[in-house]
Amino acid sequence: MAMEEQEESRISDVDQAETVTMPPTMGNGPDPVDLFADEEAERAFGAGVSHKAPSSGHRGRTILALLLLAVLILMGCWFGVRAFFRDRVAPGVTLGGQVMMGRTKDQVKQIVDRQVRDSQVEIKGEGTSARAGLKDLGVSVDSDATVTKVMNAKGSAGLSRLNPFHSEAVPLVAERDQLTMDKYLTEHFIPRQDRSAPSTIVFDQGAHAFRAQEGRRGKAPELGRVQDAVSSLIDKPGRRLAVGMVYKDVAMPISLDTANKVASQANQRLAKDLVIKGADNDLMTIPAATVATWVKPVTDLDKGTMELGFDRQAINRYLDQELARQLNRDMVTAVNVKNTKGDVVAETTKGVDGVRVKDVSATADLVVKALEQGDTNPVQASAEITPHKEQTRVARYDVPDGDMWIQVNLSDQTATAYHGTTQVKTFPICSGKPADGRWSDTGTFFIYLRYPVQTMRGDGYVLPNITWVSYYNGDEGFHTANWNSTGIAKGDPALYGSHGCINMYEQDAKWVFDNAPIGTMVKVVGQAPSGSAR
């Protein structure tokens, strides 16, 4: 009965409950509630159907994977940035206040050249003014060295170089010439009749020597303010600065004795040609007249001093144009002829190592050092050497019935043809006259040029229609000599000798022409007799 009442009560509760129609859940609505995650639902429906939360180990592996992914992303970014800046300017580098980050070498060169052009000093004097560039004021800017300095700014260390909070302002790489500045200011601001002038040295083209030129006392520009402006522009180029001109009355800024000493030192450098040595015995000689254009005295007008100096940029430009042209050498492959036993019979082409000069700037430094110290020894240029290769041609000269070759015996005035070790034919000859440098050279040669008929020309003679000509050593060769039958018959080069060729009867010269092609070896031995050999 109790059970029935209880069941009735439950049913009654349902009857009395309000029926609610639920709308379907949309994708962008709130997430459905997991009833099995609720403790009460677990008690009502049973523990076996509850949803279990992820374990702590699973969460740890997920975090570790995310950290590893982040590290890989950061490493990829790092290597990518480093690769990008490998050939570009590092972050934080400036030139003349302009940010250079990410610029290529060519772009930096354009900016350097522009900033040098834009660097000017507006100078105002008594009733006159002038706008001067850096070159006008004696500043020689080394654009290439400046570009290199910008590209290498902040060093090569990875993290330090790429740190954008570490900045570096790069100045121009430049040399100053106080004498040029003084000359410019004097010419623009001081009347000619009022000027002081330092003694200096000039090159006398007629005498091919330096001489001293005496200066005089008078009015001179005070260089301090202009020098300060130039220093500021070198540190931060690309600007226009204004300064006022200041004058002073001075004695002769540099004495005649000082100039004479420097002229004497300069002439000592011109007494002997400057020599630069390449590979082996290759030499490059620089004329004294060229060296004279490099002389550039170093002056200090305030101290009244002058020292011998040299224009390094001019030296570098000259060597950049001439060093490789005069000292570079192409590699030539050596060609050897060997017999069947592997013995070298002759070298038809002499091997030559290849040479390529390198680091012209380093050689320029050595030239400047040699000139400053008065060192007359050759300057060694830096060069890369490529050893020559070798090729071998095997000739069958040492076997019976082998390759054709000819032996010329000057002692008995004969020429003998062989096929390997097999003697084929012997001819009477008359060789070059053993006097006045007209003898026939001894050695191993190869026929390289042939003419069925030729007009021969030489020192004091013209011989038309010479037949069956086979050259083997420069202008020495076999040929018909119908005018020298007596010399050939007697074998007497002392009286009837040629200018070095091997005179032969026509039928013999033709036999050589027909049977000894280009490449045939000719071996000349012995010594020409002082009289008749037959």
Automatic annotation (TrEMBL):
<keyword id="KW-0808">Transferase</keyword>
<keyword id="KW-0812">Transmembrane</keyword>
<keyword id="KW-0961">Cell wall biogenesis/degradation</keyword>
<keyword id="KW-1133">Transmembrane helix</keyword>
<feature type="region of interest" description="Disordered">
    <location>
        <begin position="1"/>
        <end position="30"/>
    </location>
</feature>
<feature type="active site" description="Nucleophile">
    <location>
        <position position="501"/>
    </location>
</feature>
<dbReference type="InterPro" id="IPR005490">
    <property type="entry name" value="LD_TPept_cat_dom"/>
</dbReference>
<dbReference type="InterPro" id="IPR050979">
    <property type="entry name" value="LD-transpeptidase"/>
</dbReference>
<dbReference type="InterPro" id="IPR038063">
    <property type="entry name" value="Transpep_catalytic_dom"/>
</dbReference>
<keyword id="KW-0133">Cell shape</keyword>
<keyword id="KW-0472">Membrane</keyword>
<protein>
    <submittedName>
        <fullName>L,D-transpeptidase</fullName>
    </submittedName>
</protein>
<dbReference type="Pfam" id="PF03734">
    <property type="entry name" value="YkuD"/>
</dbReference>
<feature type="transmembrane region" description="Helical">
    <location>
        <begin position="62"/>
        <end position="81"/>
    </location>
</feature>
<comment type="pathway">
    <text>Cell wall biogenesis; peptidoglycan biosynthesis.</text>
</comment>
<keyword id="KW-0573">Peptidoglycan synthesis</keyword>
<feature type="domain" description="L,D-TPase catalytic">
    <location>
        <begin position="404"/>
        <end position="525"/>
    </location>
</feature>
<feature type="active site" description="Proton donor/acceptor">
    <location>
        <position position="479"/>
    </location>
</feature>
